[in-house]
Amino acid sequence: MKIKTIKSQSRRDFTAIYECEHCGATVEGYGYDDANFHQNVIANMACNQCGKKASDDYRPLVTKYADHEVL
Ligand SMILES: [Zn+2]
After folding, report:
1. How many Å apart are CA 15 and CA 17, to the nearest integer?
2. 3-state secondary structure (DSSP) of residue 35
């Protein structure tokens, strides 16, 4: 899955629309805006329609805030 749109964000917690790269299915979900979440968690989310994860060329978004920033 990848993030299609971030709907709202409060500090590092956000709500986003995730989109499957393979079948185009979208799902709304929560997220946490740090590097691990973008690089590992989202890339390993399986689509609930086709069951696939992100492709090998998945490129994570950069975080809104750096990991060391205190919010
Ligand atoms: Zn899919």
Report:
1. 7
2. helix
Segment 28-49, tens digit of pLDDT: 999 999 999 999 999 999 999 9
- Ligand 1 centroid vs 64 CA: distance in angstroms? 26
Q: How far apart are CA 5 and CA 16, in angstroms?
A: 6
Tell me how far the alpha carbon of residue 3 lies from the centroid of ligand 1, in angstroms.
13
Mean pLDDT value across residues 57-67: 89
Percent of the chain with pLDDT over 90: 79
pTM of the model: 0.89
Instruction: Name, in order, each residue with C-beta under 8 angstroms of 40's C-beta and a sequence gap of 6 or more.
Output: none
| Residues in Cβ contact with 9 at an 8 Å cutoff, skipping those fewer than 6 apart | 15, 33, 64
